[in-house]
Write a structure and sequence with these properties.
By secondary structure, the chain is mainly α. It contains 7 helices and 3 strands, in the order H-H-H-H-H-H-E-E-E-H. The protein has a domain of 95 residues: Up-down Bundle (Methane Monooxygenase Hydroxylase, Chain G, domain 1). Strand 2 and strand 3 form a beta hairpin.
Length: 153
């Protein structure tokens, strides 16, 4: 997600120099190859974001899963697992989190549709339960300009 916008969007939009854009292309190619290699060799795949970057917003983690499917060749279920259970296992936290089971800590997002059919369901959560606190109809401040650019590819 960090490199893809710099490769897919025109330099006039991103402001990336030719050197930055080429570096992003090299990184993106290696990231995608890394996902394919890990998947082919049974290496656990986790998911994260670099939300301090211009085109990586804190509210668009769903795009990372979408990109893992579209560019990395993962199934939607595998990408979702990478963001939840696999991350917990990689971090050594799978005994206390990473899945919804009795005795585990869990933050839950209630969505209007099945995210495995379209990760965009995460853009309109109905309810969020975080650390036992219920938030109905949560909303976030979005950047329409960034979202429009990211929606273009």
């Amino acid at each position: 997600m960090a490199a893809l916008p710099l490769v897919k969007l025109a330099p006039g939009i991103t402001g990336a120099s030719p050197v930055v854009r080429e570096n992003a292309r090299i990184i993106l190619d290696r990231l995608i190859r890394g996902i394919h290699d890990a998947a082919a060799n049974g290496i656990p795949i986790g998911m994260g974001t670099d939300s301090a970057l211009t085109y990586v917003t804190y509210y668009n983690a769903w795009r990372e899963m979408d990109y893992a499917v579209r560019y990395g060749g993962l199934t939607p279920a595998w990408a979702f697992h990478a963001a939840t259970g696999a991350n917990a296992r990689i971090l050594g936290l799978d005994q206390v989190t990473g899945s919804i089971e009795p005795g585990k800590a869990a933050d839950i997002v209630v969505l209007p549709a099945n995210p495995l059919e379209d990760f965009r369901a995460f853009t309109t959560p109905r309810t969020v339960i975080a650390r036992g606190m219920i938030i109905d109809s949560p909303s976030v401040e979005r950047s329409d300009e960034i979202d429009t650019h990211l929606d273009s590819f």
